[in-house]
Design a protein that fits this description.
By secondary structure, the protein is of the alpha+beta class. Helix content is about 25%, strand content about 30%. It is built from six helices and 14 strands. It has helices spanning about 60-75, 115-120, 150-155, 160-180, 230-235, 240-250; strands spanning about 20-25, 25-30, 35-40, 45-50, 55, 85, 90-95, 100, 105-110, 125-135, 145, 185-200, 200-210, 215-220. The strands form three sheets. Strands 8, 9, 10, 11, 12, 13 and 14 form a seven-stranded antiparallel β-sheet that branches. A five-stranded antiparallel β-sheet has the order 1-2-3-7-6. Strands 4-5 form a two-stranded antiparallel ribbon. A hairpin with a 4-residue loop joins strand 6 and strand 7 (about 90-95). Helix 1 (about 60-75) packs parallel to helix 6 (about 240-250). Mean pLDDT is about 90; it is low at about 1-15 and about 255-260. The structure holds thymidine-5'-phosphate. Thymidine-5'-phosphate binds near residues 135, 189 and 217. Thymidine-5'-phosphate binds near residues 104, 106, 114, 215 and 217.
């Protein structure tokens, strides 16, 4: 509905005036206030199986905005650079513009998901050590697993880049595993994306996109309960409750919330 003359626009409308850069399945990127920045907006949309399954989960975007802020700030505090600059409001964060390397960088501590299926392993089987793997980011192809040879031959990244990406991914894994362990959650696996930024002629690789229960597998250590997007993929209950529980344990929700509310309540 158009705003009447002289009447302030409602909270939802000012974004319409911003330049849309890209709309993905769970997020939208808008032009940022300064060159070299974007505003990343977290939607409530949930998708699975390459968007064959879709739903709107009220409050998911608000939780993921908070959780991604929490993890990105944590990574920065131990010296891992990320694209995150600051949270702007409930659903938006200011981020640094990067050139995304078209790979899903996946780290696995325990067999699950596509690895368990591909290798005929039982979900939950421990792995001898963390395994880093790469998928090519292409929805039409279903994000296929690719060997390093493809990545280098097709020019998506150099061998040096890949060595740096593996090192970053394993450091993120150590950090995330420790943080989650501290709140009684086992980090089974996760996905990050990595982007390039240039400081004059010097290229750096930094963590980009988001880190949230949308892109991790998180199991309660005691009960094995799933607290991640598998709840939605496999119809295991309320996704909103699962994400709220993760946020509550990490202290991203007020401490007086002792149960998962039907709608997330967040501290400002
Ligand atoms: P997978 O078992 O389906 O390959 O997923 C491994 C982890 O990576 C899991 O935590 C989900 C995450 N992931 C994404 O977030 N987005 C993706 O496109 C893919 C392929 C995986």
């Amino acid at each position: 509905m158009a705003a009447r003359a002289g009447r302030p626009l409602t909270r939802g409308t000012p974004m319409a005036r911003r330049k849309l850069i890209y709309e993905g399945k769970a997020k939208i990127l808008y032009e940022g206030p300064e060159p070299g920045t974007f505003v990343q907006y977290f939607k409530d949309d949930a998708t699975a199986y390459n968007a064959e399954k879709k739903a709107v989960i009220e409050g998911k975007g608000v939780l993921n905005n908070r959780l991604s802020e929490f993890f990105m700030n944590g990574l920065a505090s131990i010296g891992i650079p990320t694209h995150f600059i600051k949270r702007l409001n409930m659903r938006e964060q200011l981020i640094r513009q990067v050139e995304i390397i078209p790979l899903e960088v996946i780290v696995r501590n325990v067999a699950a998901g596509s690895m368990a299926k591909r290798m005929g392993m039982e979900e939950g089987a421990p792995l001898p050590r963390p395994i880093v793997e790469f998928s090519y980011k292409d929805d039409a192809l279903g994000d296929p697993l690719v060997p390093e040879e493809y990545i280098i031959a097709f020019g998506w990244a150099s061998q040096q880049d890949l060595d740096d990406i593996v090192s970053i991914a394993l450091r993120v894994n150590d950090f995330m595993s420790g943080v989650m362990h501290g709140v009684g959650i086992k980090l089974i696996d996760f996905k990050i994306e990595v982007g390039r930024v240039w400081d004059n002629d010097f290229q750096r690789l930094i963590v980009a996109d988001e880190i949230s229960p949308d892109s991790c597998r998180l199991w309660d250590i005691e009960t094995g309960q799933k607290l991640d997007k598998d709840v939605f993929r496999k119809d295991l209950g309320s996704l909103s409750d699962a994400y709220t529980e993760v946020a509550r344990r990490l202290g991203v929700l007020p401490s007086n919330v002792t149960h998962a509310p039907t709608k997330p309540t967040l501290i400002n």
